[in-house]
Amino acid sequence: MNLVQKAEHWGDTHHTRWLDVVRMILGLFIFIKGITFVSDIQPLQELISRTFNYVPVFVVHYIGFAHLVFGPLIAVGLLTRFAAVLQIPILIGAVFFINMAPGFDALNSELWLSIVVLCLLVFYFVYGSGPLSVDEYMKTHIRHREV
After folding, report:
1. Of 59, 73, 88, 89, most Cβ neighbours within 10 A?
2. TM segments (predicted)?
């Protein structure tokens, strides 16, 4: 068993229900952030362009799209690991390239919020969906149907 398989096995065998509530709140938070990004994309584009000289339009639209699509997937526990791994690069960019860029005040920016969300995404990438999720429902429902 390699390290990833061991981490997935640990995540599949150690579940507590309160962590599912945290996962749901995380997914809703990411979805709401996506709504704010898509409703007014100009501030996000200006924020990214302060750090980088050239920002492809694709990057700005991917951030909004990923938050809108994968936030709800995390909230309901459907393809949680997949959704988390697609969100992690966005949050790494937010933590290391946007919020830590010269000219940003670490106390007044969303640096700490971005760090917490990044840590939670990494945790749920390892931990998985949990017992209160669509993934778990599908596993148990399919097992009972086959028996």
Report:
1. 73
2. 21-39, 51-70, 82-99, 111-134
